[in-house]
Specification:
The complex is a heterodimer of chains A (about 240) and B (about 180). Helix content of chain A is about 50%, strand content about 25%. A six-stranded antiparallel beta sheet of chain A has the order 2-3-4-7-6-5, with helices on both faces. A two-stranded antiparallel sheet of chain A has the order 1-8. In chain A, strand 6 and strand 7 form a beta hairpin. In chain A, helix 3 packs antiparallel against helix 4. Chain B is about 65% helix and about 0% strand. In chain B, helix 3 crosses helix 4 and helix 5 packs antiparallel against helix 8. Chain B is globular, with a radius of gyration of 18 Å.
Chain lengths: ~240, ~180
């Protein structure tokens, strides 16, 4: 027994030496160091800018909170059997939850995103993580009208929260009424109760964007966000 | 470059932090190549790791292990953005996923037998799943403490030990035929 343990120890040591001495080491190419320094330099101004939109962000969040408190009760009484309207109501609740409780933590997104995908049954082979105008700040699994899916929270430079949900589409058909051509897609766009919704189908999934961007100028901005999310995010159902 | 917040220590600039971080470029790139099995993706992964490290440098606690922190960022970035793509990677005509072939160009070529050892070991190592490959490389080749490896892998030390053990078992299995041939 003692011999076996000793043999194992020696074998482990041989393997360790083999790995250290013989496993090829891939040295970085000469240009990589300069490329990193350049990339970091490009990134640095963004961080300074990042702090500047904290106060508008707080103001926008407060405004959205007031809107939700005012509008949500009326949505509950006016909801009908229209499936899109039912979805919109649930979407407002989910969006409100994001505003109230969703902590913007862009730094933890790389860690929470895999878990959110695992728990939601919706995976993303590509995901839009943001740019100068809007940033991905959180991700979690969620339920929308009994459909399990994934929810990504974005925050734009003016502090508006944009919630992006992906759930299985099931048998839901999006009505033609309300479809709008945006870039090369024709999603359904609705503005209701102080919120704007952009809804579309991608493969067998239903994708929804919601925000309090309702004025003409703001809606144009939401359409831009839609194009970014739609073109850079590839969701697919795992189950 | 702007001054970086520090916790109770003298102010450190992003420039100084970047210089410290760049000392680990070699090790990070090496792990990136073994994870992505693709030279240009490895470069992108390393670059993204540094951008993220600098973006969140205020969260790094001076005095703790910078090397391990960077490895952790690299692995998380890989799992989030690169492995997803890998799942969808195209299958070549012979049924083998593209990118499966290890990169042999860095193996010494002065002696054919020696080169064959390198190739065989690298091929065997590359065949290990990420959960085994990363802890084995970090602990045995990079010499990180098991506590650091556990933090990087986001799992208990016992799990790290178990994965390293299983990684070695698999590696021995992959190398067995070759070892017998050469004996």
């Amino acid at each position: 027994m003692a011999d076996e343990i000793e043999d194992r120890r020696q074998d482990d040591e041989r393997l360790r030496r083999l790995l250290i001495e013989r496993l090829p080491r891939h040295a970085p190419p000469a240009h990589l160091r300069a490329a990193i320094v350049n990339a970091v330099e490009r990134e640095t101004p963004k961080r300074r800018w990042g702090w500047l939109w904290l106060s508008p962000a707080a103001a926008a969040a407060a405004m959205a909170l007031i809107m939700v408190m005012w509008v949500a009760p009326s949505l509950q009484t006016t909801a009908s059997s229209d499936p899109v309207r039912l979805l919109a109501r649930a979407l407002v609740s989910e969006h409100a939850r994001t505003i109230f409780y969703g902590e913007p933590r862009a730094d933890v997104v790389p860690a929470v995103l895999p878990r959110a995908m695992e728990e939601s049954g919706v995976a993303l082979s590509w995901v839009f993580t943001g740019d100068d105008a809007i940033r991905l700040v959180n991700a979690q699994a969620t339920y929308l009208e009994g459909r399990r899916g994934i929810e990504l929270a974005y925050r734009d430079a003016d502090g508006h929260t944009v919630t992006y949900l992906v759930v299985p589409a099931g048998t839901l058909t999006l009505p033609e009424r309300g479809r709008v051509q945006v870039d090369r897609w024709r999603p359904l766009i609705r503005t209701e109760g102080g919120f704007s919704f952009i809804i579309w189908k991608q493969r067998d999934l239903l994708c929804l964007l919601v925000s309090d961007l309702v004025s003409d100028g703001d809606l144009a901005k939401l359409k831009e966000y839609f194009v970014k999310v739609r073109s850079s995010t590839e969701p697919y159902a795992v189950y | 470059m702007v001054p970086r917040e520090s916790r109770g220590t003298s102010p450190v600039t992003d420039e100084a932090f970047l210089q410290q971080a760049l000392q680990h470029l070699d090790a990070l790139h090496n792990l990136a190549v073994y994870l992505t099995r693709n030279g240009s993706e490895a470069e992108d992964l390393v670059q993204e790791t540094y951008v993220r490290a600098l973006r969140f440098s205020h969260r790094f606690e001076p005095g703790t292990h910078l090397r391990a922190w960077l490895f952790q960022i690299l692995r998380n970035t890989f799992l989030t953005f690169y492995r997803l793509r890998e799942r969808e990677s195209a299958i070549s005509e012979d049924g083998v996923a593209e990118g499966e072939t290890p990169m042999f160009q860095d193996a010494p070529g002065d002696d054919s037998e020696r080169s064959a050892i390198h190739m065989d070991l690298e091929r065997a190592f590359t065949m290990l799943p990420e959960e085994f490959k990363t802890p084995l490389l970090l602990a045995e080749v990079e010499g990180l403490a098991l506590e650091d490896v556990a933090r990087i892998m986001d799992c208990p030390i016992g799990t790290v030990k178990s994965r390293i053990f299983r990684a070695k078992e698999r590696l021995r299995g992959h190398l067995k035929d070759y070892g017998e041939d050469k004996a």
